Amino acid sequence: MRALRWHGTRRAEVADDVAMPRVEEPRDAVVRVVRSAICGTDLHPYRGEIDGFPAGTVTGHEFTGVVEETGPEVRGLRAGDRVVASDIIACGHCRSCRHGWHYQCDRVGLFGYATVVGTRAYAGGHAEFVRVPFADTVLFPIPDDVGDERALFVGDVLATGYACAVGAGVRPGDTVAVVGCGPVGLLALEVAWLLGAARVLAVDPLESRRKLAAERGAYPVPAAPDVARQVADLTEGRGADAVLEAVGTDASLLTALNVVRPRGTVCAVGAHASDAMPMPTRLAFAKEVTLRFAVGDPVGDFEPLMNLVRGGRVDPTYLISHRMPLSEAAEGFRLFDAGEASKVVLIP
């Protein structure tokens, strides 16, 4: 089959001779991919930022498709069903899963991300077909009146933006700052409006992203060295009530802590991986800041997320700037990495 494989820093290549996946465990399913997308998280290995990431990995953790085959213990799914996959692989049965902590599952994984998450690697969805473990936990049926591209975002990006806004405790009347206006930040912005935010400040270094945020009603703020002063000037010196951090770097988290008001909340959903974060504890303590980290949970939040999409309260497809055949996936990565695309959707 055809699939995209990572071979080194900024070296992603499409191959036509990748082995077809098959059912290996009783709760597996094989899915024919209809749509997949390139995520900001995919850029970390693409840019060579993950030591030891194995060459030959089939990338991609955002995908929809049609069930081709199921294992004997899969319940509630059958061949022909249209489905969207959770990016997070979870068993659904362990103690963490029973508590609803799917990212803490004993057998957690992430499609197309080797063993960066969990201890077992699973090929990703930048392919014509993909094997899905624990299919009756990881896959969700797509309603007939929802297209694949709208459903695609439920499996990761919308779930992460939702977790960010809810985790920050956005309340009616709040001034919210979004740090990082990529797809996750923009959907966190959308959810902040739904939770009653009175004003949203969109902080990003890229004018193109600030423009997208402004089109969704936010006030654009350049991510300049004086960003804390800019936010203070816009909030009568207070700072933002809630800050949604959607980048995952030390600098972005420092920005979030600098622009939040005293006794405000920062929720970070950017994929942080630093062991040397220069945490400004004096500032955080003096401001009595609440800082929390969160990971989107499509498994736990599928129903409210799909209801938002199905009811038209959120239509994430405006984020899509490029639709490309899978054969051109390497170019899609280049465009996304260069900031020339806001969201790339691949069509096998």
TrEMBL record:
Signal sequence segment: none
UniProt KW keywords: Metal-binding, Oxidoreductase, Zinc
Cofactor names: Zn(2+)
PROSITE patterns tied to this protein: ADH_ZINC
Record-annotated Enoyl reductase (ER) domain positions: 8-346
InterPro entries documented for this protein: ADH-like_C, ADH-like_N, ADH_Zn_CS, ER, GroES-like_sf, NAD(P)-bd_dom_sf
UniProt GO molecular function: oxidoreductase activity; zinc ion binding
SMART domains, per database record: PKS_ER
Family affiliation: Belongs to the zinc-containing alcohol dehydrogenase family.
Annotated protein name in UniProt: Alcohol dehydrogenase
Organism this protein belongs to: Streptomyces venezuelae
